[in-house]
Design a protein that fits this description.
single chain, Lyase, Ornithine Decarboxylase, Chain A, domain 1, binds pyridoxal-5'-phosphate, lyase
């Protein structure tokens, strides 16, 4: 944790909890690691990981483009001034509004099924998403490149869809592959890229190979980059990548305050954040590192549970902690990706505030919602 404990404590006191804290230095460092590994590949940030406008503006200023999967995300991209070659429109079931917004912004479309060829705006730039039919090393809900997944066209169909795009007057730039999220084994990427390069004889040379994202935080980035570059070279194509989680996960932590403890055969520490603020443990069985911001001599294992009336609302199990007391703070690390982005107003909970730390400068980058914000659209 690079932000000092007393600064985190002060932020929680000033802004309340649950609180998302982002570290600008860590965001910059993650982007630097991506650029170091992938060289001059064009980087599109998968906005769904964390759409906070301040983070988007910082990435935009650093020359990063955006992969958008909804009309709302396209509106965010437009709002911060991104356009044209800096925007990808993706998704398995795009709406008319999404095609229209993409066309207006001059974005590049990722075609997910053959039928889309006739739905694209005239003379669109397009990539074809290929499903490499692979089993990958991640949670089932995070795998997108398996046979039978809803994403992409088959390896068999892909060359024909490229031809159909050209015949319909579109600019068929090349192929796209994204096999899932939080993938630790670089071999999964090697296998996926290998299946794509097997298509080379049928596709001929291409302008772009988009290698997607999905890199686990501890994945061998240089190894993945080497394989992606080989695949792009096989097509004579330039390489694009779409990291989401990798860019923002480590930059974010979730601060939550201890409400109390309870012993039911297990030791529970109850905190003021839960599934409504951090859904990943419940949705994917995700394990986030947890740091207590207090010290005490003795330690035992605690389950950390949230306030929701749902028995699945447990953020972590068997975490060794010094004896907790009401008011103590816990920091859930690696929470910058799919944390705030997946927070919900279930139970009329107000979504948390978000602050950005840059050196000793703290900026509120999203205010805490009020109950009135939550019901505003019902009045
Ligand atoms: C979600 C997604 C990404 C980013 O995935 P991460 O695991 O966050 O890196 C990239 N490309 C596509 C098509 C996606 O759906």
């Amino acid at each position: 944790m690079s932000i000092p404990r007393d600064a985190l404590q002060a932020a929680a006191d000033a802004h309340g909890t649950p609180l998302y804290v982002y570290d600008a230095a860590e965001l910059d460092a993650a982007l630097a690691r991506v650029r170091d590994a992938f060289g001059d590949a064009r980087v599109y940030y998968a906005m769904k990981a964390n759409p906070n406008l301040t983070l988007l503006r910082r990435l935009h200023a650093a020359g990063v483009g955006f992969e958008c999967v909804s009309a709302g995300e396209l509106a965010r991209a437009e709002h911060i001034g991104a356009a044209g070659a800096n925007i990808l429109v993706n998704g398995p079931a795009k709406s008319e509004a999404e095609y229209a917004a993409g066309a207006r912004l001059g974005a590049t479309f990722i075609v997910d099924r053959a039928e889309e060829v006739s739905l694209l705006p005239p003379a669109s730039r397009a990539l074809v998403r290929v499903n490499p039919a692979l089993a990958v090393s991640t949670h089932d809900h995070l795998a997108t490149g398996a046979a039978g997944s809803k994403f992409g066209v088959t390896l068999e169909q892909a060359p024909r869809v490229l031809d159909a795009l050209r015949a319909a007057g579109h600019d068929a730039l090349g192929l796209h592959v994204h096999i899932g999220s939080a993938i630790r084994d670089a071999g999964d990427f090697t296998a996926a890229f290998g299946r794509l390069t097997d298509l080379r004889e049928r596709t001929g040379p291409l302008t772009v190979l988009d290698a997607g994202g999905g890199w686990g935080l501890d994945a061998d980035l240089h190894g993945i980059a080497r394989e992606a570059r080989h695949a792009a070279q096989a097509f004579g194509a330039e390489l694009w990548v779409e990291p989401g989680r990798y860019l923002v996960a480590r930059a974010g932590q979730l601060l939550t305050r201890v409400v109390g403890t309870k012993h039911t055969g297990r030791n529970f520490v109850l905190v003021d954040a839960g599934m409504t603020e951090l859904l990943r443990p419940m949705l994917y069985g995700a394990v986030h590192p947890v740091a207590p911001l207090w010290s005490a001599p003795d330690q035992q294992a605690w389950d950390i549970a949230g306030p929701a009336c749902e028995s699945g609302d447990v953020l972590a199990r068997d975490v060794p902690l010094p004896t907790p007391e009401r008011g103590h703070l816990l920091a859930f690390a690696e929470a910058g990706a799919y944390g705030a982005a997946m927070s919900s107003t279930y139970l009329t909970r107000s979504r948390p505030a978000e602050v950005l730390c840059e050196g000793d400068q703290w900026t509120l980058v999203r205010r805490r919602e009020t109950p009135q914000d939550v019901w505003a659209a019902e009045e």
